[in-house]
Design goal:
Layout (H helix, E strand, L loop, with lengths): L3 H18 L5 H28 L11 E10 L5 E8 L1 H24 L6 H19 L4 H19 L6 H32 L8 H5 L4 H16 L8 H4 L5 H10 L4 H8 L1 H7 L1 H22 L5 H21 L11 H31 L15 H15 L5 H16 L1 H26 L4 H10 L15 H16 L22 H22 L5 H9 L1 H8 L4 H47 L7 H22 L1
Antiparallel strand pairs: 1-2
Amino acid sequence: MEQSIYILALPLLSFITLALIGKKLPHKVAGIIGTLSLLATTVLAYVTTAGYFLAGRNADGIFAEAMPYNLTWLPINETLSIDLGILISPISAMMLVVITTISLMVHIYSLGYMKGERGFQRYYAFLSLFTFSMLGLVVATNIFQMYIFWELVGVSSYLLIGFYYTKPAAIAASKKAFIVTRFADLFFLIGILIYGYYMETFSFTPGETALAAAGTVLPTALMLMFIGGAGKSAMFPLHIWLPDAMEGPTPVSALIHAATMVVAGVFLTARMFPLFIEFAPGVLHIIAYIGAFTALYAAIVACVQTDIKRVLAFSTISQIAFMMVALGVCTGSDPHDGGLGYMASMFHLFTHAIFKGLLFLGAGAIIHAVHSNEKSHMGGLRKYMPVTHITFLIACLAIAGIPPFSGFFSKDEILAACYAFSKPMGLFMSGIAAMTAFYMFRLYYLIFWGKSHYEEQLALYRSGNIAHEPHKPHEAPMTMTIPLVILAAATCVAGFIPFGEFISSNGHSYAIHLDTKVATTSIALAVTAIVIATIMYIKPGRRITRIVNVVMREPIRAAYHRFYMDEAWLFVTKKIIFNCISRPIAWFDRHVIDASLDLTAKGTQWLGALIRPFQSGNVQTYCVYLLSGALVILLILLYLN
């Protein structure tokens, strides 16, 4: 485990190197430095994870947490201190594999996608910083160390989303992401401080005495922490930053919005799960209901979006919500009796990172070929991009829950946990899973089937109706297709990993088994949704599609505008917070606080002006004052006598 320190050191060193001398390096050299650093980090992460699990279980039948490094950074009192170190647990070991794998694929992919971009070296420096921050978050030994890296993740995501800083939309998106997540992080920090004060530690495992005396304080602290996680994981209504974050480079979307930053809230909830399940089960159920509503909302919005990356963004929100629901429906720590959702959530986090990373990178290859995010500029691309087509289809099948792809196995476990919690919750989430299959295959058909936009433009050019010959779509270069093939292969086999053997709610080995009834129902719903999508979108202009668009015109318009949540937030912030709260406070600050201080200053000035003549430096004036004072004193003495 001693090598685990280098998992953090290498990306940090890469960031420092590229930040300091990156401008002096050729683009290719800077990219190679960043990529080789991540390759070494990935190898170390795999070695560390393999060593941790191969060490076997302890006498209690669980994988004991390992802490190869820990130091006291900031002592606060005799019992409370902020420590820095590395803690390896089953879920942190899994996250090391996920983060480094996806980050490595993004680094390789970016060599082709970002080729020739201004700021190429800066881009790789920011990637290294983000990877370092996320790795530090998952191996944190305590909640305060996690918060430190949590904020570093926020800063680096701000830098990556706003990479194209000359584009106003990118600037606005980066600020929006930063402000919304900072707002949520305020609650996270308050929760941490309450937790530290009453538990007398920032450790994930407080003492029994503090826990016994906690009362309602611990559930309150955990709920506040979840709000911070809800901001990072884009839960409703704090989801508004994620769709706009697509203004960043597409590989960044694969890294931030597939495998790392957006699952930080899920990881936080899972890390604190023992406390949630024992002392705040009601908070867990609130999390489940928030997640269920978020999943539905995001799925509906994804069904009508026309920007390929925004479809994937709302898909991500919906899938992260599935993970939150899985954690929230747990009623116990035994995976055989109420704790299945914990394993299901982590399993889906693992598989989702792979196929959603594949979807985003596939979207990047498509955008690279057609120079547009809009699906109206696509169509018929399967003939021109066969590798991207096949890999994208595999990812669509996985997220739709079709066996034997990985998404089927993890989503089936989530649905089984939901049905165990309550039948209405199971049916509700099954319906959302069917919607997922529908909007993903709508996306797939509109991109790869139907009329080719290129061929239509080429016909117009040849007939003389447009002046310039359209750009012919082409397959992406090897640096971009190799990561697609690797992730597609992983998507095909990841579902067969005996995940429960490594991660479960109580740490004991759990053999995953499919619930035949749940699996049959979910497959039937997914296939039905795919058939509906096929009927409506495999060919453009279908009569049924036109009828649906006419009949559902207003709901579709509302969903396209995200049910006006951005406008609602603007109303709340500008009309209510700014006008009704901020302006009165500003008036009070200017006219009461500032005025009272100004009065003090003016009084001092008046007094100074009054006594200034006594210090004029004129000897004659001093003599007059002296004689006048002496005369006054003499008169007083004569009067008194």
